Amino acid sequence: MTELSASRPQPKVKLRDIELRYFSRDGETQALTDISLSVYPGEFVAIIGQSGCGKSTLLSLIAGLMRPTGGEVLIDGKPVTGPSRKIGYMLQQDYLFEWRTILDNALLGAEIQGTDMAVARERAIRLLTRYGLGKFLDYLPRQLSGGMRQRVALARTLTTDPDVVLLDEPFSALDSQTRLTLADEVGDVLRREGKTAILVTHDIGEAISMAERIVVLSRRPGRVKSEHPIHFESAGSARPTPLASRDAPEFNAWFNTIWRELDVHVGA
Amino acid sequence: MSEPETVANAPGPSARYLFWLARERRVRVAVRGTQFALLAIFMVPWEILPKAGIINPLFTSYPSALWPTFLDLIKDTPQQVSILTHTWATVKETVIGFSTAMALGTIIAAALWWWHGLYRVLDPYLVVANAMPKTAFVPIFYIWLGATLSIYAIALAISLFVTILVIYNGFQSIDPSKIKLAQTFGATRRQVLTKVVLPGSVPTLIAALKVNAGLSLVGVVVGEFQSANVGLGFLIQYGSQIFRFNIVMTAVAILAIVSSALYIAILWIETAIMRRR
Asked: Can you tell me whether residue A90 is helix, strand or coil?
């Protein structure tokens, strides 16, 4: 996409002409093609597309877990060559380690990155306490509910204090009520901490209620089909919470727009 | 687990609950009773038939002869080594055998995990080595390694390959998403091994230990048949050669006790480890 104005700061994450092919004995698959996208500091962007369009792969590229076969990923203007401490990644499920206590799970990233454990510990305890898990530090994951476990996963991601948080359908494994409240909480936490967030989802409502901008990916090979800045005039300058935004009059209009964007390819 | 989810209501247990408890207790008693009955079905004919002269006691001995034989064999005289020494030799060889198999098996499985190419190359050999009847090597090891070492060698040979395969499969079954999670934090391959794969495989390691402790005991006894002058395997071989079935059966009974004790010890280790998880 073209840069909108010169006054914007340097993008936090920039994808330039990304192309990705998979190789197997049966041949090669074009998974992503021609993807260019800039995400600015503090922005919350949702990438939406149907299953198999390569949207999760896109996050793996940003996280440095995979290399694109063409183009490049830049974070703060520097090319990504491997996992970076600036990036935090929340996966589809919590994947808490059943042999570690809640606190030790939250400390996993800090432990791997070899940061000052005393500082990390203090930060992890503060985050867990803020998410209502202060009493459960020494519990094991199996003793917690799904929503609590995903909050631990959030604490684990934020304990390493990343600038950018990648969310790969992080609520998809939860029941619908937990899902809405947790989306609310996570959106709130990330905004308050000033994180840049990229959410991948196929849930249109989730994308509209959480993100400031929605990027629609086409079917395989995934390419950027359209971008939609989401704003709620009815709520004034302040952004409504994800839950409140679902009641805003604009919500349905956005929903229909995005739906049509995705729909074109359903029959194709 | 932590605090119980439900607490009994204040008025005390209901009649239905008491009925349920009583039923549970009856079932437990019935199971125990049947277990003893089965033991009796086995032991009573073994005692009566030889004494009644229906079968030749020379080939079977009988249960009541075991204890006196044991008391006789426990003595350490210039003519005989105490049966306790025999038992200790077998236990020691078994423990060394399965400990070595565990350690080597874990290291080799980790190497196979680390270098996937190595696994692809060695896979067919491991499968064949595991399927091979290792007891065929008893005489070969005896000639190559001598009396003592050949016993350890056979215990190791019989338990090592299955240990490698079980542990490697455990490593493989670790959820790839957990590994991906560690990698998002920048984990190196070594960190993936020590923080995800190994701790996640503790239940597998215990399962492998259960299998290879039993197999090691088999290996040790078979090894002792061939080459030892001490150990329960030797005692069985010796007793059968001089047609003293009292000795043979006593040694077999002690083997049963030893293997049960081993199994209980491993269960005990398992509960101790799993309680902390």
From this structure: strand
